[in-house]
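lol ok so funny story. i was supposed to be doing the assay writeup but got distracted and ended up predicting the structure for this chain instead. priorities right. anyway since i did it might as well share w the group, maybe its usefull for someone
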Amino acid sequence: MELLSLESLNHDVLKQIINFLTPSGFGTFDVPPDPNDSQVSKNAMKTLQAFAATNKLFRGLAVPSLFHIVAIKGRQENALNSRVQEMEKCPDVVSFFRTFKFINPGGDDEKYLPHDRLASNLSRLFNFMERLTKLVIDMPKNHIGPFTEVFQKDGVVLPLVETLVVGPFCEFAVTMCPNVKFISVNSWRWMRATGGDDQAQEPTLQLINAAKTAPRLIHLEVYRAWTATLVEGTSRIIQTFVFGYC
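and the output, tada:
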């Protein structure tokens, strides 16, 4: 009986093998790696990486699954900037991102300033994300101004993004995603920003005002207490408005 090598199989069969190696809910490719990832996710990543390292053909087929979801997380500005710069060197890989998360929980200390090149580097990186459908973005309040200015100047637009998850005061991302349909908030950061104060409505009101400019929006989800002001501000602009409060 003739033995078949993997290379002799057609691409559709090889893609099915990759799908089998990629379990449902496959974890994020975190930079740096997330220690909270499940063991199943870690093992799947190692297996898929090994498959991709076999040869050029397998790498080309596996890369879209390897980089389906990518996250850059951290508090150190120099490290964040270095990670963005490294990704800029691989535009073909970045083009496969379907979900991108940029999370800098940082702090609101005025002395905690953004790296002077981080915003412009991230702006250029967005240009390569031609398949992106979901964006998660969160950064300290005092970083918002410099990032917004750069993104607006560069005209950053992510036309395929339909799902947007934002941290407090990150509503600037709404204008970057003209076809967004679903907007939600990073719940724990949202509560932290207000200190659990029901009256601290500024982040939510700013997000609602930004949501008014999204013509295709059908779902807005925020973690706040029910108030007449917030309900009135949203009831006429979207089909589904969900409040969550802990």
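The chain has a mean pLDDT of 79. Strands lie at 29-31, 69-73, 99-103, 134-138, 163-166, 182-185, 219-222, 240-243.
back to the writeup now i swear
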